[in-house]
Amino acid sequence: MTPEQFIEANVKAELIKLGFSTSVASLATREAIRYYRKQPASRRAR
Fold this sequence. Notes:
mainly alpha; elongated; single chain
């Protein structure tokens, strides 16, 4: 599982568990992945 797949699976599952709609969870998941991609690689390794 890649880090992006991990983020997608866990962010979406947690938001749906908290009661958000699937469409909102999907939008938030895309934004979380976009944020991850913007981070320098050296910060990701931690």
